[in-house]
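During the no-cost extension, the postdoctoral fellow (Dr. R.K.) reprocessed legacy sequence entries with the updated structure-token encoder. One reprocessed record is reproduced below for audit purposes.
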Amino acid sequence: MGPVSILMTNSIPSTDIRCLATTSDLCGEGCVWHPQQNAIFWTDINRGLLHRLGIESGAVETWKFDQPVTAIALTSQAELLVLVLGGRIVLWDTRTHQETDILFRLPEWPAVRCNDARVDPAGVLWFGTMQNNVRSDGTTMDITGWMGALYSLTASGEVKRWHSGFGISNTFAWSPDSETMYFADTLANTIYRGRFDPRQSSLAGSEVFFRDFKRGLPDGSTMDAEGYLWNCRYGGSCIVRIAPNGSIAAIIETPVTNPTTCTFIADDKGTLVFTSAGNAAPHGGPAESLFAFESGVQGLPITPFCL
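Re-encoded structure tokens follow.
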């Protein structure tokens, strides 16, 4: 990859974007860094795949599922992951490669599917839904209805719906003081924020944080330790770093049209990893699917799902 073009108002250094994996993902998503395994897990939604990249070895392992795999979360048991599938949310054992428990079934599946998900500072999973746009052969259908919603899920199985009427519920992130939650509707080209109570794991209110940016649509995001939101812009060939006041602090040009979500690795270089999507048709994805660059800032510590 060539040098990153960064338009900025702060001191993020210019660096190189490098390719980490060539998995030809149709819709790469859900990347998380697993500190105990020193590995990156991510998905290909359309092909129902879970990938694992060993950072030291560079080897990629892949597992196939019977539904789209949309998001991943770490848990308080290092060997277990939360996998968000199209119609269910499960625990998956990284040693046996088996589902060990079903935490939630989406009643509207297959008309509606799960999408993005992250764990809040209290260890509760937040996830979004959308009209199912993935056919059984992995091709993509048009979205015709605003059928998405925003949910939270505890390990005991308590599910709460917080918002509804989204086109594509996406992006979940929390400020460093845990008092603000960020969430997005991709189709509305809007990122919202609300007041968050980390003791009760509750969201109150909703206001526009970042809207109508002309470079693509808001896909997945992550938060850095300085309180800036890094948002992947689907269709916009960039990742935008957004200040707490909603202004643009930096625009990172990417070598792919559709960056989809991002996560930090806890190293001294502030390495940011991001996934990408092709045109979501069979054999239409880019060979280069997982990327990284040195951002110069640190991410927040990863909160696991509390089992």
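The domain at 6-294 is CATH 2.120.10.30 (Neuraminidase). The chain has one domain: 6-294. The remaining legacy entries will be reprocessed before the final report is submitted.
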